[in-house]
Amino acid sequence: xxxxxxxxxxxxxxxxxxxxxxxxxxxxxxxxxxxxxxxxxxxxxxxxxxxxxxxxxxxxxxxxxxxxxxxxxxxxxxxxxxxxxxxxxxxxxxxxxxxxxxxxxxxxxxxxxxxxxxxxxxxxxxxxxxxxxxxxxxxxxxxxxxxxxxxxxxxxxxxxxxxxxxxx
Length: 168
Description:
Elements: E1 8-14, H1 20-31, E2 36-42, H2 53-61, E3 87-90, H3 93-97, E4 108-111, H4 124-146, H5 155-165
Parallel strand pairs: 1-2, 1-3, 3-4
Helix pairs in contact: 1-4, 2-4
């Protein structure tokens, strides 16, 4: 008989689901493999929205798989057939202030705000550097989350844990 532990499902939300939420999904899936399963979505992705090419570039340069990443609406995760989420984290201030859909199972929620690297102007190198810096900030919180002891990740403690990491 095998003793398998169900991973903690985490949904990262942003407005367009092209940069910060995509970076967060890929990073948590990479570093938290087995312990966490990450997803991402946007409150109002543009028609034909795709992940930002600079987000994909910095992830690829870091050796992180991007083959499965797509931009999608948060409505995908509000249905009865959607995966059950244990934790929902907004990563942009716009999505944090919006009225969210009803999430089945009443998952824990938190806000981890990051500046939008897509808004950076300047040279190609400056724009790429903004994505690299955002990836590093997200990685810092992700590494803290995945290193927490199991009792801090129980449903009863998850909300406080995630909110505490917002200040890191």
